[in-house]
Design a protein that fits this description.
Largest sheet: none
CATH architecture: Up-down Bundle
Helix content: over 70%
Number of domains: 1
Number of helices: 6
Structural class: mainly alpha
Shape: elongated
Length: about 120
């Protein structure tokens, strides 16, 4: 289970993101903007599915969260998505409850990197 206090990996794989920044500042900025919009939509859908008790949809959203996050090097969000995808319904509450914090921490790192690239 992902517990941020015990999470040893970085929130974001900065070295991986540096390779993305090499493609150009405007490309990187656009990549982060699209990621933020799509991931927020996905998190909202995941939470709604959880509240509705649609655990199959929650697992599918967790799978998407895992993949989308890893594509941008968002390690913490990706691991949380993996946990959600693999959890039983009775163990999902804690992981779903961490989504906003994980997104906020990821967003802070990404925003800093975008600012550096301008």
């Amino acid at each position: 289970m992902v517990n941020q206090d015990a999470f040893k990996d970085p929130i974001v794989d900065v070295e991986f993101l540096e390779t993305r920044k090499d493609m150009g500042n405007s490309f990187f900025k656009n990549l982060v903007e699209v990621f933020n919009l799509e991931i927020l939509t996905l998190i909202t859908q995941l939470k709604k599915s959880y509240q509705a008790g649609d655990f199959e949809a929650v697992k599918n959203h967790g799978h998407k969260l895992k993949g989308m996050s890893m594509n941008l090097g968002a390690v913490y969000l990706s691991r949380l998505g993996e946990e959600i995808e693999e959890s039983r319904p009775e163990t999902l509450q804690r992981a779903v409850g961490q989504l906003d914090d994980a997104y906020d921490k990821t967003q802070q790192v990404l925003a800093g990197m975008v600012k550096e690239s301008i």
